[in-house]
Structure of Group III truncated hemoglobin:
Amino acid sequence: MKNLESREDIELLVNSFYSKVVKDEVIGFFFKEVVKVNWDLHLPKMYSFWESILFGQMSYKGNPMAIHFPINESTAMEKKHFDRWLSLWKETISENFEGENASMAITKSENIAKLMSYKMGMARKI
Ligand code: HEM
């Protein structure tokens, strides 16, 4: 098992994660039907997003919360979806990596998912 320490590591992690996501019966449809994700654009954004979070590279410029509001408007993003997202993310990390950055990738994802889930829930009440 290796440490999560380079852009190549992040690429492997993100690619493995989304190959699980697209096959997943609980959240796969968000990426194939609700949004027809352009993977050539989305994957590099996700590499930069995680590189910025884990290595402080600041290569990601975007607003992850804002991207999810229109998705949530067309199909509610509920707790069960966030739970599945997180369990696939954690599973992918623990299959490939260990160490401080691997733990940080888990903690950060839990915090962001919690906030995102809350915001999506609030947006549906307005
Ligand atoms: C139920 C859970 C989630 C679903 C269904 C979901 C779905 C999506 C979809 C479909 C896109 C692509 C939008 C597009 O191509 O236009 C996207 C983008 C993105 N998601 Fe999620 N997401 C979820 C949770 C999360 C979480 C927990 C995080 C962060 C830890 C996250 C971070 C991002 C980022 C950074 C982008 C790219 C934003 C950009 O284009 O700048 N997502 N998400």
